[in-house]
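Review form for a predicted model. The reviewer records the input and the model, then writes brief findings.
Reviewer: anonymous (R2)
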Amino acid sequence: MEHESFEDSEVADLLEASFIAIKVDREERPDIDNIYMTYCQNMTGSGGWPLTIFMTPDQKPFYSGSYFPKNSKYGRPGLVDLLLEIGRIWKSDKDRLVDAGNHLYLEISKINQGGDTGSLNLPAVVSAVDMLKEHYENNFGGFSESPKFPSPHNLLLLMRYYSKTGDAESLVMVEKTLVSMYQGGIFDHIGFGFARYSTDPKWLVPHFEKMLYDNALLAIAYTEAYHLTKEELYKDIAAKIFGYVLRDMRHEEGGFYSAEDADSEGEEGKFYLWTRAEINEVLGNEDALMFADIYDITVSGNFEGKNIPNLIKSNRSELETDPQLKKKLVAMREKLFLAREKRVHPFKDDKILTSWNGLMIAALSYAGRVMDNSEYVDAAEKSAGFILSRMTSEDGRLMGRYRDGVAANYGLLDDYAFLSWGLLEAYSATFNLLYLDKSVVFTDRMIELFWDDEKGGFFLNGKESEKLILRPKEFYDGAIPSGNSVAAMNLVRLARITGSAFYELYVEKLFAAAAFIANKSPHTLTHLIDAYMEHTSPSIAVTISGDKNDPVTKEMIDAYNRRYIAFSTIVLNEGGSEIARMIPSLEDKRRIGDKATAYVCRNYTCSPPTDDPDEFRKLIV
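Model under review:
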């Protein structure tokens, strides 16, 4: 619509004659997007972007839709015709449109605020997994035929459910999906990183746009799969995701950019597609023959006469077990990458969003801890430092967006929840008390600014935010988990780390507020169901009292990091008033005999403390 209509002089003249045109960046203002997408879905039965809304001056919509062509065709009304007709009615029968807006406002205001206080129950966990099994696509994984979205939070729930119950089918679904996504064209086999979604069942043809949030959440999913199974392929894929993000999506001061467009030179995917002749030119005929055979490069092409490199038809075990072949393919890929770099790049959306940076901080911290990779942890810390220094106001409020030296827009729920998640992971990776303290501070501020005292749960925008027509509240997990789902997980983990009944109280109320959805459609709130499973499962709380640089302390921390332990937390007690203030229970968990000492508590019952790393390993089995 941007090129077809909004840059067109005829459309511009019609807009200026009768309308005030407002363009909203939904990534900067997800609160506005949420409200008017709810309107569109209620009016039309569906939604999507671009989202087009016609509203009265008091913000009440009376007509909406997604894509409108410039002129009417294919049974779709054209934007020109709509502008003429709505302009005519507004002048001749304004009350008709105003009344329509008022009526719809009364209907919408009842939606999405939470139902009557209910009770989330354990069968919802099993139901969520069963529903994912029903929707699972057996041939190539994922939870739909097409389009296919990665939805990493579904995979995280299934892995944790497998670890809790031993349900093998859950892990099979996860591994099939992770491998199939990587083999498909949704993964960029030349420059790395994942595109937003696949338009076909095989994960072959992506919508070529790359989003920071997708790559962060997928990196978490692949890292957790590696942590759980010790399968090196998943570690390798996570490393490739991080390689792309650290190379192409990082601000010089450490923050991460939002996205890269699908288009270049006016064509979707042009940057990523190859002809067989181009492969021959870069690699030479002999190497090109090998590369083409493995990566499905043909003369006729696998997409609109050109080729999306993919491994769908390849023998994966051969590629992973033949070191000479792997080395040769790496050299070929590097040549193709350098050749591709000379092309016109897609536009990079270089705004920095607090919420999405929080997800990447979580991903890098978790991977850095599990893989013992200091580069990842350093990158997470730099991003966290950027947000804390550049995107936090003098009164301690988070700002939502940074670009060209300017931070703007008071942070929304996702900014507080996602950053707190990242900071909790950064604490587990570094044991820097600043990150734990800031996670507590931002969680407390989140409760203060966004909590619904009447029905429970968190609103998307804060008490001090710009007043909009409605105050939206989102429970459903979409392409990314909702702010309420992530907040629930943070509250569960903070309650366990700090021992604070304050967080327990709020997480119980949050689960009650979401119960009206979670008990009916639990597969639509998989991250919240995951948080509920963590909340209700037997927990393991590890405290290591010792100096961070002591060899025995390091050995114990490394042993914990290497072992996959769902529903667990770890705290390092180096002593001092600051950690005693944050976690009063550590008063009883000190070093014994001036030696590094580990305390392992299962479901609030603690084993005798130990200073023996081997004994510690046995306790965390």
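Findings: The mean pLDDT is 93.
Further findings: The domain at 2-108 is CATH 3.40.30.10 (Glutaredoxin).
Recommendation: see findings above.
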